[in-house]
Amino acid sequence: MILPPLSLYVHIPWCVRKCPYCDFNSHETKTIPETEYVAALLNDLEQDLHLVQGRKLRSIFFGGGTPSLFKATSIATILAAAEKKIGLEEDAEITLETNPGTAEYDNLEGYRSAGVNRLSFGIQSFNDAHLQRLGRIHDCSEALAAFAAARRAGFDNINLDLMHGLPEQTVAEACSDLQQAIALQPEHISWYQLTIEPNTVFYSRPPPLPEDEILSDIQDAGQSLLQDSGFAQYEVSAYSRPDRRSQHNLNYWQFGDYLAVGAGAHGKITIPGEGIMRYRKTRKPADYLDPIKPFTASWDYVEKEQQTLEFMMNALRLVDGVPRRWFAERTQLPDASLASYLPQLIARGLLEGTPDRLQPTSLGLRFLNDTLAAFDA
Question: The domain 6-251: what is its CATH number?
Answer without folding.
Answer: 3.20.20.70
